[in-house]
C-alpha cells in the first residue's frame, strides 16, 4: 500500500527572502574581499616562483568559497533558530514541522556541493601535476634534512653545500628532498611549496624562481630540541651569472671533498692545529656553536656543556668522550662530532668546518679561561 505524502506546505515568508538577500550581499562582499586580497604584498610572502601565483589562486578560491559557505550556513542557522524558536504559547512537547522527500531540495543540495568538489579537484590536480610530476629541464639538486640544519647537493660540486641554497633566476628547478635522521619538513613560504623530508624516501618539488631575493626555509615538523633553529637557513635567488660564480666557489672549495661517507681512518687523522687564529675562531663560534654551547662553565648546558675553560678547568680535566682535555682531543670532537648523554653534536662536515676552521676554533677555546 502506498503511503500518502501528507507533508504540510511550508511557505517561505518575506523575512526569509530578506535574510537571503542580506546573506547574498555579505557573501559577495566576502568573495570580492578575498579575490582582491594581495597575499603577495605580505613581506614574507612574495610570489617568488612559478607556480606560486596559481597556488595563491587556489588558496583564494578555497577561502572565498569557505567564507561564503560559512556566512550562508551560520546566517540561516541563526535565522531559523530565532524564527522557529519555542514560544510560550507552544505545548511543552510541541514538534516542529517535519519535511522529507523534497526531491527538488535534495537535487540541489547534492548537485551544488558535487560540482564544487569536482572543480576544486580539477584545480588542485593541475597544480599538483605541475609541482610533482611534470618533467622540466634545468637545475637538479638535493636538499637533505639533518638535526638541525639542511645540506644541499649541487651537480658538479663534491660533498655538500651548507648554510644557503642558491638558485638561478628563471631556470626551472627540480628539488629532491630527503632526510638523514628524523622526519623534517622543508617549507619555503615565498614559494608556497613544502615537502616532508622522510628518511629513505625522496619527495620532489618542481618550480621556476622568478624573483631575486633571500627567502626563508622553515622546518615545519617537530624534529628534536633544536627544531626551532631550522629556520635560519635561506634560499638566495640571483641572476644566472651570480649563481654561477657562487657555484664555482663551492666547486673550488669542495674540490678535495669526498662524496663518500668519511672513512674511519680519515676521521681518526689528527687535525693540524698550527696557525689557528683565535679571533677567527671566535667569529666561527658565534655562528656555528652557540646554538648548543654557552660560554659559561661546564654545568651551564644548552644542549652540550658550557665551554668556558674547556681546556683549563681543573674540575673537568676530561672531555665528554673521556679523553683528557687537550687541543688535539677537542679538535677530534669538533671534527668527528659526538653522541652521548647530552645529545648529538654534528661533525665538521655537517657544520661546514674546514681543518683551518677547526684550528681557529680550538685556538679560540684555548683563550677561554
Ligand atoms: Cu627539522 Cu623540525
Number of helices: 8
- Report the sheet with the most strands, covering strand number, pairing sense and barrel closure: 6 strands, mixed
Structural class: alpha+beta
Content of β-strand? 15-25%
Bound molecules: dinuclear copper ion
Count of individual beta strands: 14
Overall mean pLDDT: 87
Low-confidence stretches: none
Shape: elongated
What is the element string, with H for helices and E for strands?
Answer: HEHHEEEEEEEEEEEHHHHEEH
Radius of gyration: 31 Å
Neighbour order of strands in the largest sheet? 1-9-6-2-3-4
Task: Report how far apart the termini are.
Answer: 100 Å
Can you give the helix content as a percent range?
25-40%
Fill in the keyword field for this structure:
8 helices; binds dinuclear copper ion; 369 residues; alpha+beta; six-stranded mixed sheet
Overview of the molecule:
37% of the residues lie in helices and 17% in strands. It has helices spanning 14-36, 52-83, 103-132, 240-253, 264-268, 278-288, 327-336, 355-367; strands at residues 49-50, 139-146, 149-153, 161-162, 164-168, 173-179, 184-188, 193-197, 203-209, 213-216, 218-219, 234-238, 338-340, 343-345. A hairpin with a 4-residue loop joins strand 7 and strand 8 (193-197). The longest helix is centred in the N-terminal third of the chain and has 32 residues, at 52-83. It is elongated, with a radius of gyration of 31 Å. It starts with 13 loop residues before the first helix and ends with a helix. The mean pLDDT is 87. The site of dinuclear copper ion has 9 residues, from loops.
Amino acid at each position: 500500500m502506498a503511503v500518502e505524502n501528507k507533508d504540510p506546505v511550508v511557505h517561505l515568508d518575506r523575512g526569509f527572502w530578506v535574510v537571503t538577500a542580506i546573506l547574498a550581499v555579505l557573501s559577495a562582499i566576502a568573495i570580492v574581499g578575498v579575490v582582491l586580497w594581495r597575499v603577495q604584498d605580505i613581506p614574507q610572502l612574495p610570489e617568488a616562483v612559478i607556480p606560486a601565483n596559481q597556488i595563491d589562486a587556489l588558496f583564494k578560491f578555497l577561502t572565498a568559497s569557505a567564507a561564503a559557505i560559512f556566512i550562508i550556513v551560520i546566517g540561516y542557522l541563526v535565522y531559523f533558530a530565532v524564527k522557529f524558536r519555542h514560544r510560550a504559547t507552544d505545548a511543552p512537547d510541541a514538534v516542529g514541522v517535519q519535511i522529507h522527500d523534497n526531491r527538488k531540495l535534495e537535487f540541489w543540495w547534492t548537485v551544488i556541493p558535487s560540482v564544487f568538489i569536482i572543480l576544486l579537484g580539477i584545480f588542485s590536480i593541475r597544480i599538483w601535476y605541475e609541482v610533482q610530476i611534470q618533467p622540466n629541464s634545468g637545475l637538479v639538486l638535493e636538499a637533505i634534512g639533518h638535526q638541525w640544519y639542511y645540506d644541499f647537493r649541487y651537480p658538479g660540486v663534491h660533498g655538500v653545500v651548507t648554510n644557503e641554497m642558491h638558485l638561478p633566476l628563471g631556470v626551472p628547478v627540480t628539488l629532491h628532498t630527503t632526510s638523514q635522521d628524523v622526519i623534517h619538513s622543508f617549507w619555503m613560504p615565498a614559494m608556497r611549496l613544502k615537502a616532508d623530508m622522510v628518511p629513505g624516501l625522496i619527495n620532489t618539488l618542481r618550480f621556476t624562481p622568478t624573483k631575486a631575493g633571500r627567502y626563508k626555509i622553515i622546518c615545519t615538523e617537530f624534529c628534536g630540541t633544536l627544531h626551532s633553529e631550522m629556520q635560519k637557513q635561506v634560499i638566495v635567488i640571483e641572476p644566472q651569472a651570480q649563481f654561477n660564480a657562487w657555484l664555482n666557489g663551492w666547486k673550488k672549495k669542495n674540490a678535495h671533498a669526498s662524496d663518500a661517507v668519511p672513512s674511519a681512518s680519515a676521521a681518526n687523522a689528527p687535525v693540524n692545529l698550527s696557525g689557528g687564529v683565535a679571533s677567527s675562531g671566535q667569529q666561527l663560534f658565534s655562528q656555528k656553536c652557540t646554538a648548543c654551547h654557552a660560554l659559561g662553565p661546564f654545568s651551564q648546558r644548552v644542549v652540550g656543556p658550557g665551554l668556558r675553560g674547556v681546556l683549563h678547568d681543573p674540575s673537568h680535566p676530561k672531555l665528554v668522550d673521556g679523553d683528557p682535555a687537550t687541543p688535539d682531543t677537542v679538535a677530534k670532537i669538533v671534527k668527528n662530532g659526538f653522541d652521548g648523554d647530552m645529545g648529538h653534536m654534528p661533525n665538521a662536515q655537517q657544520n661546514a668546518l674546514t681543518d683551518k676552521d677547526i684550528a681557529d676554533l680550538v685556538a679560540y677555546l684555548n683563550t677561554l679561561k
